[in-house]
Amino acid sequence: MDFQLKYITPDIKLSSYDDKLFKTEVVFDHHMLVWFISGETKIIQANKNYVFKAGDIFLIPRNQLATIINYPKDGLPHKSVVMHLSTDRLRAFYADKNINPEYTTTPTIFHFRDHPLLKSCLASLIPYFDMQEEIFPEHIASLKITEAISVLRAIDSTVDQILANFEEPYKIDLATFMEKNFMFNMPLEKFSYLTGRSLTTFKRDFRKTFNMTPQRWLTQKRLALAHYQLAEKKRKPVEVYLETGFENLSHFSFAFKKRFGYTPTELVGQKNGC
Fold first, then answer.
1. Rounded distance between C-alpha atoms, residue 273 and residue 159, angstroms
2. How confident is the model at residue 21 (pLDDT cuts 50, 70, 90)?
3. How many C-beta neighbours within 10 Å does residue 229 have?
4. Could you tell me if 93 and 146 are in contact, meaning their C-beta atoms sit under 8 angstroms apart?
5. Whole-angstrom Cα distance, residue 209 to residue 242?
6. CA-based nearest residue to 120, from 38, 57, 39
7. Contact status, residue 225 vs residue 236, Cβ threshold 8 Å
8. 182 vs 245: CA distance, rounded Å
9. Which tens digit of pLDDT belongs to each residue from 132-181?
10. Structural domains of the chain, with CATH
11. What's the rounded Cα separation, in Å, for the pair 178 and 195?
12. Sheet containing 3-9: which strands, arranged edge to edge?
């Protein structure tokens, strides 16, 4: 695996990944503005899946569960410029603006394709990654981030509803949230935070709601979803395990056989009449 990260500031980085694929499940603490130089990415959320290719520019809102699968493409590495739009910077930007966003629990990813204004802003960062100086001037970084925010607002005024919203997750219905998001292999601390609970309260409410531990319930739900994808959607095990919360194919196969008495491959063979 050849994975490289270059930072010009903690909020601006260039990533390059040259292996077959890279999968991660995340909840971003900050909004992420991403420009793809090459490669392909699939982003899986509870309510929608996205596929982004070279040239695409998109904004991922903070505090949203997602599975991200990155691929090299056409002989080129998965390469992107990433800018964090932190809460502190956004508070400063919106301090003198009269914006009253409405809270939404499911903000969607903003897709700007290869918009020339955003592309110009992000492409102008490329030379800085080759600088030999160890410290990139903070005032220049601040100007570039401010420019990016200003361009985003000029392109789509509805972005204010996301960027100017500084509320933290409040206590929401646990059952509804977990039924929508069980396929994301996140620490219980993240699930508890996103449902507006301490970890102790989350575990207590979970057992009261589902009558079992979170770990056992999550495993059962993920295996049931995987079984449905294999049996009804005719998908392959190598396609399914990444999207149902399992870290690797061997662990998925072991857990699947333990739960159902046969392996994913055996199930697919039965369905295909083998």
1. 51
2. confident
3. 19
4. yes
5. 27
6. 57
7. no
8. 8
9. 566 677 888 889 999 999 999 999 999 999 999 988 888 889 999 999 99
10. 3-163 (2.60.120.810), 174-271 (1.10.10.60)
11. 9
12. 3-9, 12-17, 78-85, 31-38, 57-60, 110-113
Question: What H or E segment, with its residue span, contains residue 35?
Answer: strand 31-38
Joined together, the tokens standing for residue 265 give 């491959």
Q: What is the sign of the dihedral through the CA atoms of 20, 5, 119 and 162?
A: positive
pLDDT one-digit tens code per residue, 190-219: 999 999 999 999 999 999 999 999 999 999
Residues ≥6 apart with Cβ < 8 Å to 100: none
Q: Is 167 exposed, middle or buried (0-12, 13-18, 19+ CB in 10 A)?
A: exposed
Closest-CA residue to 71 (of 45, 51, 95, 101): 51
Would strands 31-38 and 78-85 be described as parallel, antiparallel, or unpaired? antiparallel
- For the stretch 69-104, pLDDT in tens is 888 888 888 999 999 999 999 999 999 998 888 765
**Radius of gyration for the chain, computed over Cα atoms and rounded to the nearest angstrom:** 21
| Arithmetic mean of pLDDT, 253-273 | 87
Give the whole-angstrom CA distance, residue 94 versus residue 73.
Answer: 38
Amino acid type, 7: Y
- Find residue 67's DSSP bridge partners: 25, 44
The residue-averaged pLDDT of 14-37 equals: 86
Nearest to 101 by CA among 91, 88, 110: 91
pLDDT above 70 covers a percentage of the chain that reads 94
